[in-house]
Write a structure and sequence with these properties.
Blueprint: H1 2-19, H2 31-54, H3 59-79, H4 86-102, H5 112-122, H6 128-149
Helix pairs in contact: 1-2, 2-3, 3-4, 3-6, 4-5, 4-6, 5-6
Length: 155
Amino acid sequence: LCFLFWTVVPYLYIWFLYKKKKINDMHIPEKEDRIKPLVVACISYIIIFIILYVLEGPLFLKSIFAVIIVSTIILTIITYFWKICLHASGITFMVITFNILFGKWMLLMIPLIPLIGWARVRIKKHTVGQVILGTGITAIVTFLIYYNYGFINLF
């Protein structure tokens, strides 16, 4: 159910837009074209978050969707004004989440963050600033929410 609302619904909407020629590229390179898919994705995330609460789903799964919802809202607002690197955002979220789920050895994944950022800049899809902002916002949101839920202990 989580997979459906987290990935299938947003990607089906993007595919629908592409088939209807509302977007020219499934990667949605134009920031203006990203707004509707981000809003649809956020609505989908909110639906699964509500389902998880109603069904008393695992606390960590609820915290994951809390991070995804808050990050997506912030990234969508920024996207109105500036294209932001969602790839950098996504890998940052995954590295932090995997570290909490699977332990400190997952710190070995940290180099993936600058590697993906470098790749996005190298293929001229983003600027360094867009990569840094995507990484930074998601890192802050992820840490704050996981800390609030009790999954990160700073002291």
